Peptidase S9 prolyl oligopeptidase catalytic domain-containing protein (Halovibrio variabilis), 251 residues
Amino acid sequence: MPLNIVQRVLPGWGVTYGPPGDGPFPAIMLLHGSEGAWAGWSHRDAMLFAAHGFLAFPYGYSSGGNAWNAGHIVDYPLDRSVEALRVLRGFQYVSERVGLYGLSRGAEHALLLASLMARDKVEGAPDAIAAHSPPDVVCGAFDARGFRDVGDPGWQAWDVSQRAWTWQNSHEGLLPTTPIEIERYPGPLFLSHGTQDRMWSIEMTKRLEKHLRENGGHPEVHYYEGEDHIPSSAGQNKHYELLLGFFLKHL
């Protein structure tokens, strides 16, 4: 029985998922959240994209960790994501257009990367971006080894002495609470958020939307009534219906 989805190795970077055949296919690079690269959720999402005609690359950017521990997002060099996009664009099975999809910390990653590439006129920016449950500001570093639920002894939002991101070997402009200047990005943008998200406030996406529209942007924005940070099955179905429609239109 022939496979409807096949794996292909992106040399030096990891595995991709896509339709059988030589393509070329529109591509999407996926950015996981604080669950880390080992959790596998981005691979699940990549399979879904592949089933609808995309070549999907779940890029694991967190450091450390293993199958039982998420690892950390500390001093991650965003320049490496620029290189990952460049390599993906050059992959023999990929067409001319490449999108970027991130959720939670991955959504922050996607918006921050796009804003910095636009600000500094770095070539190879994504042709379309989708961000689910994004923050509107830079957040602090995350280390799963120290994570505690809200209310547990020792809980804190993040370690204020550590930073999540670097750009061109610097933390400049990347300190926690710094607004993400996504209005600099000129391409199509999809934002979504559950109205009952208990981890990342929906107000962050509302502020992003307001700021973008005030600066002449036209984002596609969806608020999922009653959904938490991880949507229910019905919520997931609605989200992916809209998400796939966005990428099919722009890639």
In short: Residues 40 and 148 are 21 Å apart (CA to CA). The mean pLDDT is 92.
